[in-house]
Amino acid sequence: MEKVGPTSTAAAASGLPPSRPVRWSLVRKVTLALVTILLCTLLVSGFFAYYKFESVYSSLVQSRYSFVVFTIKKRVEDNLNLGLALRQLRQVQDVLEREKTRDPQVIAVEVFDARGEVLFDTDRGAIGSKVPQDLIEAIRGGSSQAFGTTDEDNLIVGLPLVNNLGKVEGGVVLRYPAVYVNHGVTGLLLHLLKTGAEELAVFSALAALGLYVLFGGVGRKLTGMEHTLNAVMASGGSALPGGDGFETHFAEFVAKSREAVEHIRDATEEVGRLDRLQ
Amino acid sequence: MTSRRPLLAALLIALTAMAIWPSGAWSAEPKPKPYRIYMALWRGWEEAAQGFKDYFTNQNIPVELIIRDAGQDKSKLKDFVAEAKRLEVDLVFTWGTTVSEEMLGRLDTVAADKHITEIPAVFAIVSQPLGSMVKDFASSGRNITGTTYLVPTETQANLIQSYRPFKRLGVVFNPLERNAQVAIGEFSEVGAKAGFEVISRSVDLVDGKPNPASIPAKVAELKKAKVDFLYIPPDTFLNVNRDILTGAALEQGIPTFAAGENPVLTSKAMFGGVYRYYTVGQLTAYKAEQILVHKIKPAEIPIDAPKRLSIIINMPVVRQLGLYPPMKLLGLAEVIDPTEGKGK
Amino acid sequence: MTLDHTRPLFIRLLLLAFIVLVPPVGLLAHGALGEFARGLVPEMDKKAETVGRDLASSIERAIGYGIPLDKLQGMDEFFAPVLAANREIRYLAVTDRDNRILFINGAMPELLTPYFSVTDFEGGGSRKSLIGDFVNLAQPLMSKGVVVGHVQVGLDQDYVQSRLMEIAVDIGVMTLCSLLVSVEILLFIVTFNVIGPIRAVSTVMDRVRRGDFGYTCGVISDDEVGRFVHGFNGAIRHVDGLFRRLEAYMDEIKTAHFDKTVVGRVMDIEARVRFLFRFSRTGQPEVINEHQATDIRLPLFLFVFAEEMSRSFMPLFIRDLYTPSTGLDQEMAIALPIAVFMFFIAAVSPSAAMISARKGSRRVFLIGLLPATVGFFMSGLADNVFDLTLWRSLTAIGYALVTMACQSYIAQAAQRESRAQGLGVYVGAVLTASICGTGIGGVLAERVGYRATFVLAAALSVVAGLLIYRLMDAAQPKAEPLSPRKREFLALLRNWRFFALVTFAAIPSKIALTGFFFFLVPLTLLQTPGYDLGDIARIMMMYPISVVLLSPLAARLADKMGWKAGLVAVGGLIGGFGLLLPVLSGDFNVLGVSIALLGVSHGLSASPQLAIIPDICWTECRNMGQTNVLAFLRLAERVGSVIGPFLAAAFIPIYGISGAVIALGAVVLGMSVVFALLSFAYGSGPHIEAELAE
User: Fold this and answer.
1) Tens digits of per-residue pLDDT, C56-66?
2) Domains of chain C (ranges plus CATH)?
3) C257 CB near a chain A CB, below 8 Å?
């Protein structure tokens, strides 16, 4: 493809409009789109992985603590079946305290009656206080499945205590810090953020490079064609038919435009001559 | 000054109450009127009555108990009915088959003038309530409900099976008492299905009375018949002579299962499966609570036994026999082990 | 790089997208899985220790009663429930002081003896060691202050692996979804910025090559393409301007010149110029806007995506809303909104098609988005079944309007290309949206709840509207041929081949879709223990995926072999068989296979069902127009869509949910068998005897 002079002068000479500035090149546009998609994909899969892990991890932690709660439940219920009242089972306090000393992560283990009054608690100061309403609701059904709730910064797992009349006598709950679960998954979050950022940087660069190769060609070709067009329109000549149909057609277009310009110019001159003749 | 005192006291009480209860409205409520329960007993205050009473204490339900003991005298029961009606109590509790049938009336004899019909009632320790007192365990069809206390034969058989599978079950019984014979009949029926045999020996009679001295010989006979377990039925004579019976079995190396708690707790039976009277009393109180507090009609409350059986294992006997209980049973059971110096 | 063949450009772009998107996600996931394993293992050890300690304390109690360790009874029954409740624990064992295995459950003793015999478990506390594929935790058993043996808890390392596999599969599915979404977006960007403008330039260029300077390109953008088009248009305008000046000059001469010969000569020149070149009659070049079928793809994709988000949980959502006081059975209550939705689509679609032909696709798309968005949003706020039914019908009306607008837009835009290609754009967008929407919707609902997911659907639908509003200029309305009267449609049903196709092929396949897939599948899958919403959604993705994979194949087969009725019959049989699969295999875990087979069935039969129409309704197609016959087929099959949920709901009380699947399968298979038998009588080639019978 031939290039004749800078575009601006050629355009001025030909009477064509000044060429439009490229504010957002194709490469830049598509790169932006692709990098945005990459960012979103990384974010989505990263957060998905994080949440998935968090759910697997926290259910594992919960299942461990519900096992602990279950063993306490068994012990308390065995005593209930001897006909003792829940509030009279003094040895329960020792059982709870033993469980707490075994696992430093455990914040508190408490046993409360059906009305929600705390009867035994590793935090002895809390004995006699009321548990939140949702715990009273949770034990109501007497389900043998452990329930899990939260309270401020703690996660709670619990089980109802059922006597051998089938009546819910109360509940046992274990509180462990939500931070514990968070701590277990924070490593992953950091890892995800770090590798995510690295990969975003590396592959964004790769994307930019690839798109430069892909669309830079298109842009350059189009710019070249525009130059040719301007040059031919301004000072004649012809566009070389390029490698493909579009360029061949473009060459024909340029030739036709040039032909029209010249023809009309000739016709205008001819008309002018005729006009002046008289 | 005197006039201001009650006011001050009231203020003090209110303040204390408010400190205990976070909600002020709670403390303003007057203490609820206690429910009045008429307790008619047959042979004095025992475990079931205690369980009944303790339940209300444990649950913080205010009750006023009017306790009457018939002292095994049937004639007193008529007066009890009249008194309960006169006192206009909220609920009547009857202990035992006789008291319950006399005061509440059998299905075929019940009459408003002779029995308690208007006042809701709960019964406990009635051997065979079905058919006599109630139409159906799901609903009495009357203004009464109650509890059963006998462990179903099949449950007992399963319990023995879960300790060790067995083929032959031996029983020594007093031919003069019906209870044991009923139990033997039922065990034979269950055994026909479950694949075990019941071998029974009746105690010798001397002067029309069962002779305790003949028990060891009967146990030896059973040993010869290669029984796997000795079953001790609910039988007054055997209960009295439980040391002879369980001692003989231990000597012969036969493990024993008792339908009552005494042979295990205070003698040498190896293990037993019972509903404790105390628990039965509590369950009866639970049904009373449903009627009094939750206003459920007695006819809508099913008649049943406690959900869980009390399994009692006599550890010294187990060790002597070398026949150790399976872990699962051990986990569920209440273990009697005086030598270790602990009950549990 | 060629500009007239933009396909390679797009394929290269996709390749690049793949290279840029997949490896980072893969690396991220790989690293994350490593972290997972590191995080899970200590927690599992703790769990094993807790379990071991509890078992040990029970055993110690037994020993305390004087039971010798080797005489413990019923250890199998003691261990079994613990193993059953804790999947990660592979075996439980008790060893004595010499590490001989006394009791074991869950593994062969021979397997462990060699390890135990050489391991030293002494030393206080629990000990962790690696034995083959197991992590072994030994918990000492104490009696009177002396270690008498150990409880051995074996953790299965495969358990960690399988949990990690599950997580990896989850991430993989999410990646697939985001990849598909990004393909849609890239396709849109490239079409909008490059392919569309280049095609428009080509059109104008073709005219110029033939001497026609009457048109310019209506493309405005800030990039190289915009700049090129600007220059390109500039050249045309320049020529046009020169001509206008000449024209004005000549007009002046023609009116004002006294010399007739000069006027004649000028007129000759004018005639010559006008012969060689053509110019716009309006005084300046007209702007040409090229419409691409793909222009509407992204908005359509987003809209269908919004609708599909609720696919995996709709019946579950309705079940949550259900209260017995409504006077409906629970099953019927669940069927109601689903069936009513289908009914409104069926009822509104024909008029929606006519409205979009008259009012223009853009307007109808925007009009349709209004009820749809309100419907999505309010569905999220619904508090009873009737409420939801109302809002779902609103969504259905919107859905019908939007999809019909898109179809009519594509039909207009695709006139230059083949119609099949246009249909491909439509079906492609709908199916990809179905895959992604179902998958992402399920995961979202699990994370943020049903209601928030509906709100998100509403938001997506608004985005679709913005895209249409901002990027699509009003398409020219186009008059369609008048639709034939109803009586002519009834005449169609007298054609037994058409009637058989509708009744025994099209309707049962819709019954299977709405009754089984939309209604029963979520309910059945939720019964399966351990399945959460995300799992359900992923299993349900099998349907659109198998349709996507099989449709092109079936279309090619139908075209090449002319074996259309056969494909329809085989498709129907496969679908019916798939529904019966659970009863054949006696296992409801194969429901995923059933769903995939349904996809295979619909993938195989959908396009031959349409392709066969010109053959079996040769006369009718000539009289009424093929489009109308196809439209009638669509309308008739929607009867099946409406019946499906009700039929399924009617079966549940009789056979239970699982039984309802079987019963529905029996109905579908039965009807498909009838069609298969009839299809033998179809013969091949066009049939005209319907005309002879008249």
Assistant:
1) 988 998 998 88
2) 32-163 (3.30.450.20), 210-288 (no CATH), 292-480 (1.20.1250.20), 486-694 (1.20.1250.20)
3) yes
